[in-house]
Please model this.
Amino acid sequence: MDRRAFFRLGSRKVARVAVEQLDRKARQRAARWIRPPYALDELEFLLACTRCGDCIEACPEGILFRLPARLGAEVAGTPALNLVSGVCRLCQDWPCVAACRPGALRRDEVAPGRKDAPPRPPQLSRVVIDTRRCLPYSGPECGACAHACPVEGALGWEGPRPVIDAGRCVGCAACRAACVVEPAAIEVRSLYREGTDALPV
Model:
């Protein structure tokens, strides 16, 4: 390998490491919020999003909002999803995605490997039942969330107790909205975080 080729190879490796570090940092920060449906991976999303607000205006549920400036210039003005006090209704025509001209929200047209099938709804968040607060886990019957879930098989039952199938649940938060416990026994978490609720920031 000549000197020029050596430096080209070295610069590519440095660039790759730098991008990996930026990606890691972007994912760590994104643990504090939830992006709109069909959002690109966080670093790609930040590079593509123009902060135009069209997706926010297009949301019929009014659950999209702009991240505030105090979070930093990198994310200020980008859209996030409020699933703590709202529900994504998984709109059939995905108006928020259709409104995104730069392609930061990008919908697959068909399910992978199946030309005749519509795509599965996008993964929005991770939903977890807090069994310390969920009434059926401590004795009383409830069932308030029983008919709330719009995704077949995502919310099941073990006797009187609700159980979420993580493989089917898309994290729309409909079950959380139906929960009668205060604070809700169902937590909504960012895809980048395993901790507690991703609060509106």
About this structure: The longest strand covers residues 126-129. Residues 32-189 form one domain.
